[in-house]
Amino acid sequence: MKRRRAFTLIEVLVAVVLIGMIAVTLQRFVTTALMGISISSEHEAEAEKMSALFRYIDEQLDALTPRAQSALIGIPHKFGAGLNSDELQWRCFPGSGTLSSTGEGEWFVTLTVMPQSKTSTTLDLGLKRRYVDADETSYDWVPLVKDVAGVKFEYYSKQLNAWLDRWNDQNSRPRLVRMLLWRTKDALPERAVFSVNSSRIEQ
Predict the structure, then answer these.
(1) Better-predicted residue by pLDDT, 136 or 114
(2) Which end of the chain is more exposed for a tag (fewer CB within 10 A), N or C?
(3) Contacts of residue 93, Cβ cutoff 8 Å, sequence gap at least 6
(4) Which domain does 180 fall in, by range?
(5) ∠ CA 147-126-119 to the nearest 5 degrees?
């Protein structure tokens, strides 16, 4: 009768070690792949968020009411050594401009940054909405982008052929509006330039 050769203890241990090494390698590969997918998804979501924000602003500047006073006002702010916290205000009716179909009459909508709470130093980008005839302190707040460091708006004047930090001409509009949005203080800002189509009415 022919004897069968069994695995020795050393062979079993070597096999267990090899299987363990393969398992660890697979686990690291899967973890790295999942992390890459997660980071890619986060970047895509952030890019889409910025794209949606810029589309919204572009639509509002394109739909400014012709010849209306205070249709577009730009106010620069900078507190201490921090980044800009400018305000871009436009005049509109309920709907896409206010991100609400409720309410009547005309509204002032201001795009700016606000602290997440009274004691917080973290800012959100969002909208301050109020009726045209309401007091400036009587507004409600709609956050759009969480955790930003600052925002700056610049306005191109065709008459001066220059970019301005402020726009307070209530009877005309700039040709272009440039926006810079910092997600963190040390990061390069997100940039966008919008045309103010109704500005051609005043030319």
Answers:
(1) 114
(2) N
(3) 105, 106, 107
(4) 57-202
(5) 55
Residue 95 lies in a domain: yes
Of 157, 179, 152, 180, the C-alpha closest to 168 is 157
179 neighbors 191 (Cβ within 8 angstroms) = yes
Q: Does a structural domain hold residue 104? A: yes
In a domain, 193, yes or no: yes
Q: Return the SS3 of 135.
A: coil
Q: What's the structural domain count of the chain? A: 1
Q: What angle (nearest 5°) sits at the alpha carbon of residue 97, between those of residues 140 and 86?
A: 65
- The SS3 assignment for 124 reads strand
Judged by DSSP in three states, 172 sits in coil
Burial of 144: CB neighbours in 10 Å, binned 0-12, 13-18, 19+: middle
What six digits make up the tokens of 2? 């022919």
pLDDT at 202: 42
Longest Cα separation, the chain: 109
Residue identified by tokens 């610049």 is 154
